[in-house]
Amino acid sequence: MRIREIVKAFESYKVVEGSYRIWLDKNESPFDLPEEIKNEIFEEVKRIPLNRYPHITADPLREKIAEFLGFEKGNIIIGNGSDEIISHLLKLFEGGYIVISSPTFGMYDFFAKLEGIDLVDVPLDERFKLQNVENYAENAKTIFICSPNNPTGNTQEREKIINVLETGAPVVLDEAYIEFAESSNVDLVNEYDNLIVLRTFSKAFGLAGIRVGYAVASEEIINYLLRIKPPFSLNALSMKIAELMLDHYDVIKQNINYIIKERNRIYKEFKDYAYPSEANFLLMQLNAYEFLLEKGIVVRNLSGRLSNHIRVTIGKKDENDELIKVLKEFIERF
Ligand code: PMP
């Protein structure tokens, strides 16, 4: 069975469960919503008729996001997490293969394998910058660029992204962590019909639990995506919560600033081991996964090209203090 091979290819990823003290493994926000906002949400949620299907294309939320970003509703599609949108994007374009640049987010590879789509890997260079992906554009179904990249944390230069777009191949620019970075390239959607930008409410917005992601692209691409997507994949409650959170961006912005400050503090402590990051996590060349786990701290253990590396999500100050203490202990011992 083909599925057996797919499962085997992803065997190294293990979901950690248990009663650990500190969770810094999934690039989540450490901040739940403040109580007042939760109460406001519950009041709104009470009014939703649960016997009815949600809006078929999530238009109220599409409108809200469009206004937030300065686009039209027609440029936005909502998914059950941006993961869902990745799976649909792979079905959209012709071409022989998809192009990724490893090490990068595993779901591009996962969905390609699931769909039986060939994959060309043009690995990032030693500074984690994109190499000659343009050379593979001609026959590419889609070229995936993740910026800031998971798990390395760095961004790709705008000029390079433009060069790739100039090939005319469909380009998916994954900006899941963009709120923690200096600048976005979402505006390029106005110039390039072959660009699809992916965003999510799971990271900076602190809403990983409600599963809402979105894509920004030309109306033509969005219309095709809307036709192949299961109509009611996003539930009415999640839709409403995401909408309300866009009215509270001031709270989100405060959290983003906090995370960036903490990220820079941790980076300074481990400059010799950590890579510069524009995301809510740091990649470190430290084989400290087991050591941290024994002390109750869960981080992401990386395998493959980045063996002996860990990816550490930025947490609250007290969690980060504990992480710094334990990592220093690890460095002294080994
Ligand atoms: N893209 C990247 C780069 C990610 O790291 C993640 C989550 N880990 C996603 C997309 C998916 O996010 P979600 O499905 O929660 O929107």
Quick check: average pLDDT? 95
Q: Regions with pLDDT < 50 over 5+ consecutive residues?
A: none
Task: Give me the strand/helix succession.
Answer: HEHHEHEHEEHEEEHHHEHEEEH
The gyration radius over C-alpha positions equals 20 Å
The oligomeric status of these chains comes to single chain
Overall shape: it is globular
- Total number of helical segments? 11
Domain unit count: 2
What structural category do the secondary elements indicate? alpha/beta
Instruction: Describe the largest sheet.
Output: 7 strands, mixed
How far do the termini sit from each other? 44 Å
CATH fold call of the largest domain: Aspartate Aminotransferase, domain 2
Describe this structure in words.
Helix content is 37%, strand content 14%. The chain has 334 residues and is an alpha/beta fold. The chain has two domains: 116 residues, Alpha-Beta Complex (Aspartate Aminotransferase, domain 1); 196 residues, Aspartate Aminotransferase, domain 2, CATH 3.40.640.10. The strands form three sheets. A seven-stranded mixed sheet has the order 2-8-7-6-5-3-4, with helices on both faces. Strands 9-12-11 form a three-stranded antiparallel sheet, with helices on one face. A two-stranded parallel ribbon has the order 1-10. Helix 3 runs parallel beside helix 8. The radius of gyration is 20 Å and the shape is globular. 41% of the residues are buried. It binds 4'-deoxy-4'-aminopyridoxal-5'-phosphate. The site of 4'-deoxy-4'-aminopyridoxal-5'-phosphate has 13 residues, from helix 4.
